[in-house]
Write a structure and sequence with these properties.
Layout lengths: L2 E3 L5 E3 L4 E3 L3 E3 L3 E3 L4 E4 L3 E3 L3 E2 L5 E4 L6 E4 L2 E3 L1 E4 L5 E4 L4 E4 L3 E4 L6 E5 L7 E5 L3 E4 L1 E4 L1 E3 L5 E2 L4 E4 L4 E2 L38
Parallel strand pairs: 1-4, 2-5, 3-6, 4-7, 5-8, 6-9, 7-10, 9-12, 10-13, 11-14, 12-15, 13-16, 14-17, 15-18, 16-19, 17-20, 19-22, 21-23
Amino acid sequence: QRLVRRKRRPRVTRGRDLAVTGDVLLTGGTFAPGSQTLTVGGNWTNRGGTFEPGTSSIIFVDASKPSTIEGSNTFYNFTSVTPAKKLFFETGETQTVLGAFTLRGAKFQLIELRSTDPGGLQWRLDPRGPVSVQFVHLGDAWNIGPTLIKALPSNSFGNNTGWDTDPVWSASAAGNWSTAANWDTGVVPGSADTVTFNATSV
């Protein structure tokens, strides 16, 4: 199932929630979901259409496949709480979130956030409302808002600006660095991570 918005109808509004297991493609006209929830399993591509977010919620689901967000977009609520989901954001584009920006994976199953050019030009986030980010693996991200985003606990692929992603040693007894279970994210830190050993670390 896909949602395709072309120019034939100048404006489409939604009066109920919608689940799209495939892709959302905006190439013309206006899509205005109002206050509804749109659940997306595939990609979100804006190539010339107008998305009027209203007070809607866009929720990315389905960890069996990655979702790529293309073009610069303005969302109201942007959410993914599906552990092990992979989200790729088009390099050089800006995602503005007027409402809540919520991402929450789980230990051992972090949500991956990367640019479509990993290690290259960053993707940009402009958060205007509350931000809650936990258990993500973040890369190539530039938070252009005025407040540091504390995405704790999380890991970093590197090339991030305006984010704090410090994995913490959480072993209850002596153990190896390379054991994933010894870290609060369930992921062994990489070269881009700044790790924390707190007062209870052994």
